[in-house]
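Database export, one record per block. Field names are fixed; values are copied verbatim from the stored entry.
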Amino acid sequence: MLRFDQVKKTKSPTQSGGKAKKPSTGSAGGKAARPGPSRGSRKAGRIPVRGALKSGVADRAAHEPPRTPRADLGETRELALLAIEAALDKKALAPVLIDVSAMASYTDFIGVVSGRSDRQVDAIAENIRLVMKEHGRFTLGQEGTGNGRWTLLDFGSVVIHVFYHPVREFYDLESLWIEAPRVKLDVPPEATLSQPDALYGAL
């Protein structure tokens, strides 16, 4: 049996005034490693928006008509001339074709033609639509159809306005693009306006 003075009492670090030993980590410097997930359970970092392979947000540009590359501007010009010819086939008046490719972001050519009456305006617009469809171009938008005063045909790179002439003079659309170059057209004599006041009634 041990005597009382032979029993060694164990003191805690706080009782003896010493500091507690840090547990051994096996790393240099004796710093404790923070616990973390294992390699198999580690989560991947957040993918930047620009670098995401898949996104839940639909690409807005995919729903917009594609812009015409500069290399294809000559082809677009021919399509615009085709639309003007289709208008002249229905006796359209005072055709104007404006090259806005260097100034506008939504189209390359704007055509403006006139009709003598409400019915002629609708007939001109319908013939343009049919001729362009035969050449593989469909309207992306059409406004004013059936009112006989004004019809807009949007083919993306080509936009055609068909006006009842007094309405065209009232709005003077061409003046908005006064600095844009005009495409030279072969306008037949019957499509020119020599005496507009005698041809059209009041607005």
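Remark 1: The beta strands are 93-99, 109-115, 141-143, 150-154, 158-164.
Remark 2: The radius of gyration is 39 Å.
End of record.
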